[in-house]
Amino acid sequence: MHPYLFELASLMAIFAFVIVSPGADLAMVMRQSLTHGRRPAIVTSFGIGTALLFHVTYTILGLGLIISQSIYLFNIIKWCGVAYLVYIGIKSLMAGKIDLSGDAAPDSAARKKDQSGWKAYMLGFAANALNPKPVFFFLSIFSTVVGAHTPITVKFGYGVAMASCLIVWFVGVSLFMTTPQMRAAFSRASQWIDRASGVVFILLGLKLATEKAG
């Protein structure tokens, strides 16, 4: 096997466990699916994938090492992420009941206020980009799995592959969560789901607040 293919296979094997683990990204996509419909959830998925590519890019360029060694920069990113997650959590707690069981299509304006594609995209991008922990994840796996002499273009290729897999995973979650059966089931408890997701976002924010650099 070509060494680059072996590196890519090793990276993807590790990353497969990461993308399916519960976290702020999954909570965001699930809430988008249930409250705004399929299209916004899919756009949010692309925002999350783009943010991951953002993390990979600065890690490859060496900025990740600078951030990991700077308590000041780490804390700036961390507290921005905490504020964002808590803000989303409070908005979820204050949301009213949404009817998802009618005959309207998942993305119908009659069911809810339309969410712009840009807002949906930025919700996903910010949820991932403002989390400083990927800095250490990508620094660790790239330093242990990827060879020092692997060209930067190949490393970027690895990042594109991981971001693509992440997008595919969350698009799959979006499609599943917006099936008629799922919408009908969740419609009966939409307000409680919003409250539960609000608590989850706030708890994730508080968990992030306890994270330390290094």
Detailed description of the structure:
This protein is mostly helical and 214 residues long. It has one domain (25-31, 39-97, 111-209). Helices cover 77% and strands 0% of the residues. The protein is built from ten helices and no strands. It has helices spanning 3-19, 24-36, 38-60, 63-69, 71-94, 117-129, 133-145, 152-177, 180-187, 190-209. Helix 2 packs across helix 8 (152-177), helix 2 (24-36) packs antiparallel against helix 10 and helix 5 (71-94) packs antiparallel against helix 10 (190-209). The radius of gyration is 18 Å and the shape is globular. Mean pLDDT is 79; it is low at 100-111.
Estimated share of beta-strand residues? under 5%
- As residue ranges, the low-confidence spans are 100-111
Give the SSE string. HHHHHHHHHH
Enumerate how many helices there are, as a single number: 10
Structural class estimated from helices and strands = mainly alpha
State the share of residues found in helices, binned by percent: over 70%
Count of discrete domains: 1
Query: For the report, how would you describe the main beta sheet?
Result: none
What is the number of strand segments?
0
Mean of residue pLDDT values: 79
Q: How many angstroms does the end-to-end distance come to?
A: 35 Å
